[in-house]
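Pipeline run #58 for the internal structure catalog. This entry was flagged by the ingest filter as a single-chain record with no existing model, so it goes straight to prediction. Upstream metadata was stripped on purpose; only the residue string is passed forward. Reviewer on rotation: M.T. Logging verbosity set to normal.
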Amino acid sequence: MDPTRAVLQEALQEMNLAVPVTMIPVADAATAQRLAFLGSPTVRVDGLDVDPAFRTTAGWSLACRVYPGPEGPQGFPPRSMVAKAISQARGRQITL
């Protein structure tokens, strides 16, 4: 399993959530532009990037993406960043 999927699965399991995960292949510039893809890997929860610094970034890229990790830059989002994005999404839901 690639590190991004592993981090996502760990965060979901830790929060005891069973939710659908959609993997979208982005193989060309037209798809990247249409999705406002910010580089690989991009992880979004309810349409928002897991990295708050990129939630207002415009444009698109087919480049590799780097995330701030505990020991420096890394090629996948840290589990804590993914878990925080999931928690924030859950907080936006209205329960009656």
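catalog note: The mean pLDDT is 92.
catalog note: Residues 26 and 32 are 6 Å apart (CA to CA).
status: ready for reviewer M.T.
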